[in-house]
Amino acid sequence: MEAAPLFSFGVIADIQYADAEDGYDFAGYRRRYYRQSLNLLRDAVEAWATERPPLAFVLQLGDSIDGLNARSGEAEGALEQVLAALRRLPVPVHHAWGNHELYNFSRARLVHTGLNSRPAGTMASPPVRDCQAYHFSPAARFRVVVLDTYDLSILGREPDSPHYQESLRLLRQKNPNDNLNSPAGLKEPRFVEFNGGFSQAQLDWFNEVLKFSDENQEKVVVMGHLPIHPDASDRVCLAWNYEDALSVIHSHQCVVCFLAGHLHDGGYCLDSHGVHHLTLEGVIETPPESNAFGTIYVYEDKMILKGRGRISDRVMHF
Fold first, then answer.
1. pLDDT tens, 58-87?
2. I need a labelling partner for 41 at 20 to 30 A (CA). Which of 90, 95, 105, 273 fits?
């Protein structure tokens, strides 16, 4: 009989809840189940709560509520519904911030909501003052790093801030379209407003965290809203400077897996350095009779994903 896992954790992405009738994606042909997504989240929570041994934590990979809420003035209420569902779990939930959080709230406001899961304390001190990256160790010789994939972005920042200016400059340099959300005609179609990237300060910090993990023989799981490998995404839904994040990861031995959301179809690849890149299918485009969440069981030499609904089972060796 197989040894018990060292620990396990839940994963879910792109809930995008709004109290609204079903709609469609930007292209107008992918159905989005806004109201139903909250029920799917509640079903996920119920399933996770029955896991024995209990989960160590849950990763919510971003886009917890939909941008529609900003237009209807429902952002606070929608977020409260999602957080209330997650509060029924007796374990911590770690949140990545996605573009839809930033359509609804400024970064300055998000820090004061339940979506700020960054722990207080020096070990997890942020790379720079308003970056949401942090790390924690759920078990001996394992570490989880939460990256802020909208650290470089024009979303959620004050237009007069240096970060905003730098991000807008980069975006306009790569995207001449009037509509900065349009990838039409771009050589690098990821340079759109609904994506973002990593500041140099965050990358330097990430490098130091991985150096520490290498030195202490830790295995590291990294999570962020945006995928960072083209083979686990399409050409549009990638972090702006994904290559920079990959080169940090590839200069160390410790990273075993990168978990992302954003691309509602999901994706997967094992890269040239043996790192698993898993992009989770989004709850928002999941029909009411299905679901899209999973539990990952961590062993010394592998992680086993038990998926529900649209998310398939997977064994990831390392």
1. 999 999 999 999 999 999 999 999 999 999
2. 105
In single-letter form, the type of residue at position 226 comes to L
Report yes or no: 127 and 199 within 8 Å, Cβ to Cβ.
yes
State the amino acid at position 45 in one-letter form. Answer: V
Residue 315: both structure tokens together:
């064994």
Strands 7-12 and 292-298, bridge-based pairing: antiparallel
Q: Where are the alpha helices (DSSP H) in the chain?
A: 36-49, 68-72, 75-87, 99-104, 107-110, 162-174, 200-215, 242-250
Q: Is 194 left (phi over 0), alpha (psi -120 to 50) or beta?
A: alpha
pLDDT digits (tens, 9 = 90+) for 133-160: 999 999 999 999 999 999 999 999 999 9
- Beta carbons of 231 and 275 less than 8 angstroms apart: no
Count Cβ neighbours within 10 Å for each residue of 50-82 and write b for 16 or more, e otherwise: eeeeebbbbbbbbbbbbbbbbeeebbeebbebb
Q: How far apart are CA 90 and CA 56, in angstroms?
A: 9
User: Residue 177 corresponds to which amino acid?
Assistant: N
pTM of the model: 0.97
- Burial class from Cβ neighbours inside 10 Å (0-12, 13-18, 19+) for residue 150 reads buried
